[in-house]
């Protein structure tokens, strides 16, 4: 009897517990999951949920159900009585598409009810933008898939759904590539950010030497005025003033307790001239925050994508991203003629905001991948992987790992991990790529080699050298370097360097954060000999600042008929070889520079703020072999930034002075890229100025070019971008008479030129790994240094742009 009583009591207690109903909402026909569908389950609309980014939902207790209403923008609504709800999970609900596009927006009399909601969201976005919190910390699991098998007949949203499931509609049982990574991210206002990638895996590679960070492909939050996707920029629907540029249509409202979620469609107004987005947005009245957003380009130009973001409230009044996904279309896959897609999905876990984080937890590296990250085991992925891999993803690992073993993928990836710095690695050595083959107007083709030890051979030491031979000048060049690294991550090192090479007279080369003078060497038609021994010490003295101190002893020898008179005295003897000893200092500051450390190698992605460089040299006569006392100072500023609705600005100011008479090799000659035989646009240079046409001991130069982006009709092979150029310089030289055998001018009256370039008049695939865009430009010199023959003041040039897909 007691046993029967216990069984009855147990059954009664079971009936008292919650009876959850789990389900998934799919699109009828395609069978793809539908995210953020509204599932309301009582007549008063006080109880409701939304499907997650994978179309799944859970009703906490079946007993709460009176009637279920399922609605989503663009789909026919469904309703179910309580007795129609299945008792066994999962409950599969299929919605039929209305197959209608948004009609041309017509504004009727009266206020659009969606505008009040949007304006509230705009006014409160500083409180809801995760990047505006004092601090935040989270863990992230990121999965990326590369494929060429999405069916072009599906809509953008359907294509994104294909990637959300193990779909059989694609004609292959595997993808081209899959990668996963796990990151620990933290941020602190105003400018501290740190991401540690603690695990990474890429199909085809045993131990990957590359990793994708949490915020590499995913744009973390849509509260900014402008978002960048690959190379394109888009005005967001919650940008300042967006309510005057976008059209919003309120579609539905769902009530949950005291909060409501407004569901609306958005797109740019008719006749808009900006690059905008279209899609669906859910705004919650609790803080007027984004709860969900779907976005794709209103105009599909060079970049095509769809993205979905969902947000959750992690504490009262604090919203944070929960899941983010993007499907990015590539016009051409590398090494394959077919178009392809990159699908990326990010899961955020353990998010915390406005918590104490010490400044000591941050340094100048914003994103770091350690070598240990590629050696994590299966238990690691079981712990951090937020969704199981589907059959196609598992098959991708199996297939690509097999192919990778056969064709030694890891060998080539490890070799290319420092290619952005100009090295190819075959452990334990690094080979300098530009030492094998390069070209200049003076040397012609230059063949050679450069080999250096890697940190795998010696942790703190680096030894190497190079050799080169110019076909045109028929001369050998060589040099060697010995480094001792106190801390490679901080670029803290001591260097001993020797070289016997050639250098352009009056050479100006500021080291900002990347080389922008790719074409400049082909215009150099004269170089002089330099033999130099130098010792330097470099370290990072703050998060955004580096300092290098050095001492060098060098000899410059003219390779032409040039001679220099050391004084204006009658008995002064001219010479063509000059010896210097110089103590020097190089200071560089790039505020908020974005630096990634990838398995010990650092990559700078630049900054939205100006880069400043100071280079000072003090010549010392009578010390070692020095024959000249002087002070030589150069100061440069470079600012490269995108401005909303205006395009890219590339702006430089550079100036320098030498306070004593020096040979022409130690003066300043403007970067000139005019040639009667080679006509190629080279940024941050004088397009109409002849090589070494001017020399100065004091100068100031201003470069400006502004790319407005594509503003006309765009097609597959035609996407013109208008770019204006302006450059001017002023300078002086007090001792021109001391320079013999070299015909040049000075810049007291200034030099001025302006031009217009139309980039991307035509673009096409190039070696199956990217696109080559061709355009044309015209430049004109004017002012006091205008040339007598009108035609000589013009330069008509070819514009060449290369982009990877």
Main sheet record: 18 strands, antiparallel
Mean pLDDT across all amino acids: 84
Given helix and strand content, the structural type is: mainly beta
Number-wise, the strands total 42
C-alpha termini separation: 77 Å
Instruction: Indicate the proportion of strand residues.
Output: over 45%
The outline comes out as: elongated
Rg calc:
32 Å
The total count of helices amounts to 7
Helicity level, as a percent range? under 10%
Show unreliable segments: 1-17, 100-109, 151-155
Structure description:
This protein is mostly beta strands. Helices cover 9% and strands 45% of the residues. The chain is built from 7 helices and 42 strands. The strands form 6 sheets. The protein has an 18-stranded antiparallel beta sheet that branches. The chain has a 13-stranded mixed beta sheet with strand order 13-14-15-16-17-18-19-8-9-10-20-32-33, sandwiched between helices. The protein has a 4-stranded antiparallel beta sheet with strand order 3-2-5-6, with no helix packed on it. A hairpin with a 2-residue loop joins strand 32 and strand 33. The chain is elongated. Residues 1-17, 100-109 and 151-155 have low confidence and may be disordered.
In short:
This protein has 805 residues and is mostly beta strands.
Quick tags:
805 residues; 9% helix; 42 strands; mainly beta; 18-stranded antiparallel beta sheet; 13-stranded mixed beta sheet; 7 helices; disordered N terminus
Topology, element by element:
Layout: H1 2-16, E1 21-27, E2 38-40, E3 48-50, E4 56-59, E5 67-71, E6 78-81, E7 91-95, H2 113-123, H3 125-128, E8 135-147, H4 156-164, E9 177-188, E10 192-202, E11 226-229, E12 232-235, E13 246-256, E14 259-268, E15 277-284, E16 289-297, E17 304-315, E18 318-330, E19 340-353, E20 367-369, H5 378-384, H6 391-407, H7 409-416, E21 423-426, E22 429-432, E23 437-440, E24 444-453, E25 461-470, E26 475-487, E27 492-503, E28 528-542, E29 545-557, E30 563-564, E31 577-590, E32 595-598, E33 601-604, E34 611-619, E35 630-643, E36 647-658, E37 698-710, E38 721-732, E39 739-740, E40 751-766, E41 770-782, E42 794-803
Parallel strand pairs: 1-7, 10-20, 20-32
Antiparallel strand pairs: 1-4, 2-3, 2-5, 5-6, 8-9, 8-19, 9-10, 11-12, 13-14, 14-15, 15-16, 16-17, 17-18, 18-19, 21-22, 22-24, 23-24, 24-25, 25-26, 26-27, 27-28, 28-29, 29-31, 30-39, 31-34, 32-33, 34-35, 35-36, 36-37, 37-38, 38-40, 40-41, 41-42
